[in-house]
Amino acid sequence: MNDPAVSIQRLSPSLEQDFLRFFEGTAFSDNPRWSSCYCQCFYEDHTVIKWSDRTATENRALACERIRRRSMEGYLAYIDGIPVGWCNAAPRRLLHALDSEPTADAERVGTILCFLVDPSLRGRGIARQLLDAACDGLRSQGLAIAEANPRTSPRSAAENHFGPLQMYLAAGFTIVKEDDDGSVWVRRQL
Q: 16-23 and 56-69 helices cross at what angle (nearest 10)?
């Protein structure tokens, strides 16, 4: 039996309700502890706010506001019109949590942050399709480099939310830096 066709759409104000439907539905069904994020963590300057104090209500409102202003970016995966996956990918300049890790070429870089796939559909290539769409979208914005920060040995699906390292390597990314926290930075020219 063939897997159903997946379509990918870039986040836009018209897709706000689909984004919320996914985040408040199956996205965190196997990890409810993280369900309050709404993928806002990296858009915030952590020298200004204390992330652990942020509530789901606050993050939801900020996600909606950013979606409407087009200052939050990413891609939704659909099967039969139902959102089943998400990839947060944006120009680095929008991701203020990374301001403490400056890079000389930040204006040329798009950062791929998080992947969420409905747990019942994992392992079917949806994340890879989201990665390809993210790279295409970052390129279409005039960015020259895609980067990501996957874990080398995630202990759970939740820890793998930055995307599997092997997926990036198979897509032509190379490791450019290792961090003390068990992660690496990977990059690819777009």
A: 150
Domain total in the chain: 1
Strands lying side by side in the sheet with 75-79: 6-10, 75-79, 82-91, 109-117, 145-148, 184-189, 174-178
Domain ranges, residue 57: 6-189
Residue 55, burial from CB neighbour count under 10 angstroms (0-12, 13-18, 19+): exposed
pLDDT single digits (tens) 107-143 = 999 999 999 999 999 999 999 999 999 999 999 999 9
- List C-alpha distances in Å: 131 to 55, 57, 128, 147: 29, 28, 5, 11
Residue 55's CATH number? 3.40.630.30
User: Can you tell me the distance from the alpha carbon of 130 to that of 5, in angstroms, rounded to the nearest whole number?
Assistant: 13
CB 112 within 8 A of CB 87: yes
Distances (CA, A) of 140 to 34, 92, 110, 179: 31, 15, 11, 30
Q: Note whether 127 and 73 are within 8 A (CB).
A: no
